[in-house]
């Protein structure tokens, strides 16, 4: 039972003419205590609360309730209404069930009356069902039918179960088929059903098996699905016949007429049995031999419940129909026998179902958007063009007479690709741009918080916190984000969580959450329990709560989730967000570590992990010996020997990670610290403890081993068992440490182990080698190769994606921090195939990103920004926009080319060589067109003088004095002032001047 957003389990309610009795636990009674006065004033009824103690099954309280009933009516025969369909679950309800049937009360089943009372829907309920029906029919028409046609045309082998999964995802994401409904309000009534190949089950509870879709000649494909909108159900079922015989086609025509007759009989004032009787009359008149195969019911009522059995359309139900009732009209022929030797088409079934609204004039078929006419249900193959019944030309057609309409496979494939390109890729990129615009707007409005390194005003000193009662998630209604789905969401930008309560998203500041956890061991459905800070349950520092003791506070809420992974991610994101807020608002960095307080209990009670290796490795003997990690009162201690110890205080841990062995051969715990500590003789902020789940080096024999070698199979089993055992030990250690961190003493630290999300990871170069990088809820990490990468996303200002252009196979990603004095972090050579995934992840993290075709000199960029503090946050990165990045990058490159170091000599060797080459080219060109009037010497004269000079230089045997005299004599005499110099020489002097 749910009341005011709160779940009451094991609660009994009894209504009498003057009282309402509640039998529930202490927490629920405390909550219901506030309703006594309002209920008494509103309806004049008294609420009587009976407290249910935990070890008690409530037997005495039940006797008190029954005695009060007998005393009130003073009669020996008291009639009590109850819902007989509800089966008792739990000790309390089972005891109550026995008390009722063992008393002298006359029990009467009122479930039918309640169903009839709620059968007529109001305008808002009808609108919800119409939206659900439109979504269901749209998925069938826009996705399922084209998907089946494509499978048959391309002769693909696709299992029914895979079609079920794909269709379910489309239902839960209406925008994929251009249906403008909020995904948060959408759900499925049951897993979509796909059946073929002779195995049919015409029930909504049937499952799609793992057999491949069968579409040979003479086969039938049955599809059924139901969608919910805001909790209200709809249903549709269709049958497709592929190149079937006249016998099967006639059976479908009879079913179609019977289905239409059953719908037409749903008129106000008529009986529910008349609908099914109309279908029976059609079958009896058209094909009496098919009557034994007709389903025994024509459908049921539909609404919040998918099947309202009290509103069944069968022969015995004399319920009078009223305007506003909703029905799921479902008819079919089950297990018809056909004349065929193929076992997969020898037994067939046909099924049609629609969601129908009873109206004043005629019934309205809400799922008529998907046709069930013969033209859209019958398919055949193009045998004239190919010569054999190939699926290359599949087309729906009119079966009287049976004709084949050819359609080329290339045409169908081309049109399908165009539809996909226009309907999926462009809207997705547009959605990314809209999200980025919203992120930029929030940054401009100041909602994005600076990191601790640049905005110390967020820190209020050691141990000083804001009152929790003063926390505000959204100052204005305009700041509230747009939400597509009614599910728990975490708004990291505004430090808030959004909870769906009574169809509305209600915001809470994350600091108001005391505890969030997951309950239940089921893999398919779990409970997400959230407890809030309320008066008298928090510390005395929270004066904002203590000052409002007279107000009503929400203490706890519990939600049921069918996706365990999503629930775990939401809870972990909530805790990580809370951790980030508390980091900024509750504490400052610790410069020196406190003293470790050792665990003084028994050894068997210690929380420890054995045979661990540490990175960075210890020096000396500790490098070769594994050690033990023990969780003490206020920190960890890693011990190799008496002299080799490493202490890590809880207060110095900024991020803690647990990564099981999945992609890699090690299971590890990683701690990223606020302040550096000494590990051996090294200073580090990252300390890691790990175990290798598989030997790094194996002995390799020259003999080739068989894949079926028993020894190798046994060895593989041992390795898998070892990996599971190591992961289990680490998980147990992590859970026990989390239980310590959840104590009030460590609430201000907000510590929580994070696990990197491998499915969002990508390959890139960080440091010296390519490594696998994966995001966690609050960081981007790489914990296998050294140097480690731990980037806190809350400290990032923007992300720049560089070298993103057409034709590139890879790109780079640069993280720019809010503290511009820090160096950027660059991840290089990321495959271009991961670009879309990274963009979506950045949007989910509310990080603004830009794209650039070139790489930037970030030291220059950050220096320029720091020298211009007056620039606004949304303007300072404007040059990174795609339209401006090209010109800016080119101008930057031009400045680098023109830059000349001041310590370089003017007459450098390279410049002289370039100048000489330029002079030679120019003088050669001039010489080709010169004459003797220019006054310059020709090449022949220059070469002759050079030979004469070489001859006059003498041989090596000449003395140095003689050679010097000959050099001076061989020199060319200076020109006269009026004699022009060669043009090449003139150009060279001009260049050096």
General description of the model:
- The model is unreliable at 1-8, 383-393, 395-426, 447-469, 586-590, 696-702, 884-935 and 970-993 (pLDDT under 50).
- The strands form 10 sheets. Strands 27-26-25-24-30-29-28-31 form an 8-stranded mixed β-sheet. Strands 8, 9, 10, 11, 16 and 17 form a 6-stranded mixed β-sheet that branches. A 4-stranded antiparallel β-sheet has the order 12-13-14-15.
- The protein has 24 helices and 39 strands.
- A hairpin with a 4-residue loop joins strand 18 and strand 19 (496-501).
- The chain is globular, with a radius of gyration of 40 Å.
- The protein is an alpha+beta fold and 993 residues long.
Using brief descriptors, characterize the structure shown:
single chain, 993 residues, alpha+beta, eight-stranded mixed β-sheet, six-stranded mixed β-sheet, 39 strands, 33% helix, globular, disordered N terminus, disordered C terminus
Largest pleated sheet: 8 strands, mixed
Taken as a percent bin, the fraction of beta residues is 15-25%
Give the CA-based shape: globular
Please identify the structural class as seen in this structure: alpha+beta
Main location: nucleus
Biased composition (Basic residues): 966-975
Domain FACT complex subunit SPT16 middle: 488-638
Subunit structure: Component of the FACT complex.
């Amino acid at each position: 039972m749910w009341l005011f957003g709160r779940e009451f389990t094991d609660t009994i309610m009894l209504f009498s003419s003057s009282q309402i009795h509640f039998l529930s636990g202490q927490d629920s009674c405390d909550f219901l205590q506030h309703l006594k006065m309002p209920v008494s004033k509103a309806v004049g009824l008294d609420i009587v609360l009976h407290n249910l103690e935990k070890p008690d099954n409530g037997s005495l309280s039940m006797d008190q309730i029954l005695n009060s009933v007998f005393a009130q009516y003073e009669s020996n025969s008291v009639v009590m209404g109850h819902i007989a369909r509800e089966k008792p679950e739990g000790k309390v309800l089972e005891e109550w069930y026995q008390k009722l049937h063992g008393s002298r009360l006359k029990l009467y089943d009122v479930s039918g009356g309640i169903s009839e009372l709620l059968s007529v829907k109001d305008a808002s309920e009808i609108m919800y069902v119409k939206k659900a029906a439109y979504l269901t029919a749209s998925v069938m028409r826009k996705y399922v039918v084209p998907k089946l046609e494509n499978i048959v045309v391309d002769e693909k082998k696709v299992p029914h179960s895979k079609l079920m999964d794909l269709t379910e995802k489309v239902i839960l994401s209406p925008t994929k088929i251009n249906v403008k409904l909020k995904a948060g309000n959408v759900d499925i009534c049951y897993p979509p059903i796909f059946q073929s190949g002779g195995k049919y089950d015409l029930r909504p509870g049937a499952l799609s098996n793992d057999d491949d879709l069968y579409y040979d000649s003479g086969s039938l494909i049955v599809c059924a699905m139901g969608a919910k909108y805001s909790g209200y159900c709809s249903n549709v079922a269709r049958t497709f016949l592929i190149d079937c015989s006249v016998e099967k086609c006639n059976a479908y025509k009879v079913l179609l007429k019977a289905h239409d007759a059953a719908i037409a009989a749903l008129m106000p004032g008529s009986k529910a049995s008349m609908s099914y009787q109309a279908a029976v009359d059609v079958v009896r008149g058209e094909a009496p031999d098919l009557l034994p195969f007709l389903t025994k019911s024509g459908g049921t009522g539909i609404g919040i419940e998918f099947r309202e059995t009290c509103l069944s359309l069968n022969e015995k139900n004399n319920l009078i129909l009223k305007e506003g009732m909703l029905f799921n009209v479902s008819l079919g022929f089950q297990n018809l026998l056909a004349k065929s030797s193929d076992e997969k088409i020898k037994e067939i079934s046909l099924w049609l179902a629609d969601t129908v609204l009873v109206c004043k004039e005629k019934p309205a078929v809400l799922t008529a958007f998907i046709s069930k006419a013969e033209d859209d249900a019958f398919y055949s193959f193009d045998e004239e063009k190919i010569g054999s019944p190939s699926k290359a030309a599949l087309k729906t057609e009119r079966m009287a007479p049976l004709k084949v309409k050819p359609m080329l496979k290339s045409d169908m494939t081309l049109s399908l690709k165009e539809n996909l390109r226009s309907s999926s890729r462009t809207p997705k990129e547009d959605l990314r741009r809209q999200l980025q615009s919203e992120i930029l707007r929030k940054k401009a409005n100041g909602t994005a918080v600076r990191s601790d390194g640049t905005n110390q005003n967020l820190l209020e000193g050691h141990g000083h916190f804001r009152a929790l009662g003063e926390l505000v998630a959204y100052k204005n209604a305009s700041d509230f984000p747009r939400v597509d789905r009614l599910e728990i969401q975490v708004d990291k930008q505004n430090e808030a969580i959004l909870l769906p309560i009574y169809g509305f998203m209600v915001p809470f500041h994350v600091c108001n959450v005391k505890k969030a956890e997951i309950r239940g061991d089921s893999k398919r459905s779990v409970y997400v329990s959230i407890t809030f800070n309320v008066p008298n349950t928090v510390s005395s520092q929270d004066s904002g709560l203590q000052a409002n003791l007279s107000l009503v506070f929400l203490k706890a809420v519990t939600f049921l989730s069918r996706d365990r992974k999503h629930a775990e991610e939401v809870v972990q994101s909530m805790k990580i967000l809370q951790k980030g807020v508390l980091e900024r608002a509750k504490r400052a960095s610790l410069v020196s570590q406190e003293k470790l307080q050792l665990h003084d209990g028994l050894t068997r009670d210690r929380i420890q992990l054995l045979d661990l290796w540490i990175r960075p490795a210890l020096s000396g003997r500790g490098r070769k010996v594994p050690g033990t990690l023990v969780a003490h009162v206020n920190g960890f201690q890693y011990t190799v020997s008496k002299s080799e110890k490493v202490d890590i205080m809880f207060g110095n841990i900024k991020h803690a990670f647990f990564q099981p062995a999945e992609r890699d051969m090690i299971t590890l715990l990683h701690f990223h610290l606020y302040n550096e500590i000494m590990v051996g003789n090294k200073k580090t902020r990252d300390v890691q403890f790990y175990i290798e789940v598989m030997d790094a080096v194996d002995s390799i024999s020259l003999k080739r081993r068989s894949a079926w070698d028993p020894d190798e199979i046994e060895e593989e089993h041992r390795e898998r068992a070892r990996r599971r055992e190591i992961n289990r030990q680490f998980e147990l250690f992590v859970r026990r440490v989390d239980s310590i961190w959840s104590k009030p003493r460590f609430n201000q630290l907000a510590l929580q182990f994070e696990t990197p999300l491998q499915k969002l990871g990508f390959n890139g170069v960080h440091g010296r080698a390519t490594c696998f990088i994966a995001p966690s809820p609050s960081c981007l990490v790489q914990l296998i190769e050294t140097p480690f990468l731990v980037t806190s996303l809350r400290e990032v200002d923007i992300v720049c994606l560089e070298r993103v252009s057409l034709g590139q196979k890879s790109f780079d990603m640069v993280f720019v921090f809010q503290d511009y004095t820090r160096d950027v972090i660059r991840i290089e050579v990321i495959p271009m195939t991961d670009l879309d995934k990274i963009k979506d992840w950045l949007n989910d993290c509310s990080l603004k990103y830009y794209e650039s075709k070139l790489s930037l000199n970030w030291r220059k960029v950050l220096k320029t920004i720091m020298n211009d503090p007056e620039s606004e946050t949304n303007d300072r990165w404007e040059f990174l926009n795609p339209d401006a990045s090209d010109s800016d990058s080119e101008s930057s490159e031009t400045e680098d080319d023109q830059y000349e170091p001041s310590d370089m000599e003017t007459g450098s060797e390279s410049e002289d060589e370039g100048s000489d080459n330029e002079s030679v080219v120019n003088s050669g060109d001039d010489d080709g067109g010169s004459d003797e009037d220019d006054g310059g010497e020709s090449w022949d004269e220059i070469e002759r003088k050079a030979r004469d000079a070489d001859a006059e230089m003498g041989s090596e045997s000449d003395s140095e004095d003689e050679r010097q005299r000959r050099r001076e004599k061989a020199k060319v005499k200076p020109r006269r002032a009026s004699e022009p110099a060669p043009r090449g020489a003139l150009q060279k002097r001009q260049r050096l001047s």
